[in-house]
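chain below, 404 aa
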Amino acid sequence: MYRPQGSTKLKKTLIAALTLGATLAPAIADDVVKIGVLSDLTGPFAQTNGLKATEMAVTDFGGEVLGKKIVVISSDHLNRADAATVTARRWFDEEGVEAIVDVPNSAVALAVNEVARQKKKILLATSPATADLTGSACSPTTFHWTYDTWMLAHGTANTMVDRGGDTWFFITSDYAFGRAIEHESSEVVTARGGKVLGSVRAPLNTSDFSSFLLQAQSSKAKVVGLALAGADLITAVKQAHEFGLDTSGQKLVGLLLVAGDVSALGLQAAQGLIYSEAFYWDVNDGTRSWAKRFGELNGGRIPSMTQAGTYSAVTHYLKAVKAAGTLDGPTVAAKMKELPTDDALFGHGKIRPDGRKIHSVYVLEVKKPSESTGLWDLAKVSAVLPPDQAFRPLEQGGCPLLQK
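prediction:
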C-alpha cells in the first residue's frame, strides 16, 4: 500500500501532541478555580450582566482560594436555552468550571439548572426570576439568590392594592418569566378582592408596544402591570409616557424594574412607578460605598440588584469553598447552606434548604424630577419587607428536596 513520505512521522507527532494535551489539561485545571459568568452580553439584559460584579467579588476576596488562582470566564447565552446548555456542558466537562453565575432569562436558567444538577456543580442563579428554581425544579447545588417572581409580585401587587389599585391589566413578555409573574400578581390581586380585566402577550425584543398600550387604556384598569424586563420594559414605559397613559389616571407598575432601567428612562418618564428590589444603592453607608466602587468599574452606571446579588453570591461561594477545603459541588453546597450570609449589600441572611437565599426587600417609588438631588437619586423607599415575608414560604414551594 502506498504511503506518502513522512506520513508515519506526522502520525506519531499528532499522537504525541494529543497525548501531551490530555496530560496537560488536568494539570491546568488543577491550578485554578474557574467561575463562569453565563449571561446576556449583547441583548435586552446586557446592561445588568454580572461580569464586572463577579470580577469585583473575586478581587475583593483576594484573587485566590485553597492556594489556587481564581479565573473568571464569560459567555453570551443569546437568550437561548439550547446555546446556554451547550456552553454549560462544555464548561463543566472540558474547561474545568466549578460554578456558573448570573444566567438571566428564566427559560435559560431552568435549562442550565438541569445541567448543573446532572454534573453536581454549583449554579448561582442571581439574575433569573422564575420561582421554580426553588420549587418544582429545585436542585441540591443550585442557589436562587437575588429575587424571584413570587417576591416581585407580592411586594408590588400588595402595595398597589393597599393604595386602591384593585383592577389590573397586564402587558406580559411571552416567555417563562412574564407568564410566571403575571400569574403570581393576578393571584395576589384576586385574593385581595381585586379583578384582572385582561392581558396581552408581547414577544421578546418588541419595538412597538402601541397596540398593547391601547388595549390597556381601553380596559380602564386602575393599574397597568408591565410584566416585562430589560429593554422591553424601558421601551414600553417610554411609549406609555408618550401616549399619556401615566397621566390619564391609570397607574403604571414595573413588575421587574431595576435602578438601571429607571436611570435609562429618566425621571420625567418613570416618575411615580412602583417596583420592588432586593437591593437599592442608597440604603446605608455600606451600600453607598459598594455602589460607588462598582460604578467606577462600570462606566459610571448605577448597579442593579442582580449585579449586587452576583457580587454577594460569588463572595459567599468563595467563603464556603475556603471553609469546606474542597471544590466538590455537593460539599460546597452544603457548606453554603450551613454558613450564614453576611455582607454590606444585603446584610445578615441565610440560605434555606430549597436553595432560596432570603433577605429584606424594598418597595420603591420613582421620584419626581423635582425631588431628585443627583444623578443616582432615583427612588424613595415606600416599604421594607422583612426576610420572612419577602419570599414564598418554604412549605409552599413544592421543592422535592424537602420530601427526602
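The chain has two domains: 26-147+284-359, 151-277+361-390. The chain has a mean pLDDT of 90.
thats it, cya
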